[in-house]
Amino acid sequence: MSHKLNVISVAALLCCCMGATASYAQQSGEAQSTTPHRLRGIFTVRVAPDSTPAMAEDMAGSAGAGKAPPLFTYHVASNRDNNNYTGVIVGRDPFAGGGSVSVPTQIVPLIIVTHTVGTTVNSKGIITTKPGRVVFDSTSPKTACLGSRNNVPLTLVQQSPIFRSANFNFGGTEVGVTQYIDAFQRGSFWNVIDKANYHVRLAPRTLAPIVIDIPANQGLALATTSLGPPAFCAPLGILNIDVFDGIVTTKVLPALKAQGVNPTTFPIFLLSNVVLADKPTDLGTCCVLGYHGTTGSPMQTYSPSNFDSTGLFGGAEGGDTLALSHEVAEWVNDPYGNNPTPPWGHTGQVVGCQDNLEVADPLTPTNAPRVFGANGFTYHLQEMAFFSWFFKTPSIGIHGWFSNNGTFLTDAGPPCK
To answer: Could you tell me which residues come within 8 angstroms of residue 203 by beta carbon, excluding any fewer than 6 positions away?
Structure first.
């Protein structure tokens, strides 16, 4: 690419980054591959310590003043626990018919440089390392994993149904020719929206790649032979999540203000075959495939997401834009990570109980139907739970469903314990 590269070194930032943001881990979705499922994926949401639901409501009230993306405040009485709930969602109020919004969205390709190689992994998941420089470039071809065409993660993301329109049909009903998350939102509120006018779309713009150089003790490249045979197609980067997030929030986001990144926009940081962990040398703390987070005042939302082509997360659920679909849908429905719901759980990636409006978690790693792009690439997307699933029966979603591919036909049931 002809863009000027921005280079950020993290060595001077380690003291200020650690523990700066609260993190709530949630178990993962995983990627399509012909190789076995070999690693566990994790999705997480990172909420600024001073973020509260009341602050989010204040943001909704000031959305027109350049302090937030377009938001509406919902008020719902739940018949799951007979309590009232209030939160904010990106878009116009569907209960009032809604309308269309287009959220400025920056795609920020990252180039990650590590200086340690993981050579072997023992039975406890501890990685043996040696020195070695590896570059993970989301703007370069991944021929070993993706073949001779449709092999550049950035290009594939730009052309994906996250940002380009495709025809979406839920259970025999045409939802629209639109972006995937917009189609999901339309399906979730199908019986109350003005179907001719309700949309929540992203307006993407790609910024120059940013190079982040990771100190040797804060990240590594897992060698393709490190897990034993069969070798996987490309190294996997594993970074310390606190260090990485600290760089994003204290260095990258402030630097991008000059390019239009602000609390009214949604920056997405594109990783390629790079995941995050509490401790990079311990697979027991790995692997975060994506998250959405908040920082600053007024609150800036953002989301790093991995485009996986290694096949290490296996199964039939897909790689490529699966993690991105998860995170964008959750950002739209829970932009500040603290929309309250009655407790739910023991489903999808959640082994315990949660009480927030994270719409992808209950169905991770369930696929939505794949989308065949105009570029010839087959995209993987996640199915998500509708708004009604969290709160009450009957559903206001399409067909009276509680998820966009009909996996959920009832709500979340009695409050989780």
So the answer is: 102, 103, 104, 105
Whether residue 167 lies inside any domain: the answer is yes
Give tens-digit pLDDT for 383-400.
999 999 999 999 999 999
Residue 315 falls inside a structural domain: yes
Lowest model confidence (mean pLDDT) among 38-52, 235-249, 272-286: 38-52
Burial label, 191 (beta-carbon count in 10 A; 0-12, 13-18, 19+): middle
* pLDDT confidence bin for 21, thresholds 50/70/90: very low
Q: At what angle do helices 322-333 and 180-188 cross, to 10 degrees?
A: 50
Distance between CA atoms of 286 and 275, rounded to whole angstroms? 8
In a domain, 106, yes or no: yes
pLDDT at 283 over 70: yes
What phi and psi values does residue 313 have, to the nearest 5 degrees?
A: -100, 0
Q: Return d(Cα 198, Cα 183) in angstroms, integer.
A: 10
How is residue 301 written in tokens?
Answer: 């939302």
DSSP character at residue 232: P
Q: Which residue has the tokens 């070798």?
A: 231
247 pLDDT higher than 70: yes
pLDDT in tens, 30-73: 333 333 448 888 799 998 877 766 666 666 665 556 789 999 99
Strands 219-222 and 100-121, sheet pairing: parallel
What are the backbone angles phi and psi of residue 263, rounded to the nearest 5°?
-60, -15
Number of domains comprising the chain? 1
Q: Are 382 and 361 in contact (CB under 8 A)?
A: no
Residue pLDDT, tens place only, 356-369? 999 999 998 888 99
**Considering just the CA atoms, what is the radius of gyration of the chain in Å?**
20
Spatial CA neighbour of 144 closest among 238, 211, 224, 239: 224
* 416 within domain boundaries: no
Backbone dihedral region for residue 276 (phi beyond 0: left; psi -120 to 50: alpha; all else: beta)? beta
Q: Measured between alpha carbons, how far is 130 from 13 in angstroms, rounded to an integer? A: 24
Q: Going by DSSP bridges, is the β-strand pair 84-90/210-213 parallel, antiparallel, or unpaired?
A: unpaired
Task: Give the sign of the dihedral formed by CA 131, CA 135, CA 136, CA 141.
Answer: negative
Which distant-in-sequence residues (6+ apart) come within 8 Å of 279 by Cβ?
A: 240, 285
Which domain range does residue 357 map to? 6-400
Specify the length of the chain in residues: 417
SS3 state of residue 170: strand
Q: In this structure, are strands 274-277 and 286-295 parallel, antiparallel, or unpaired? A: antiparallel
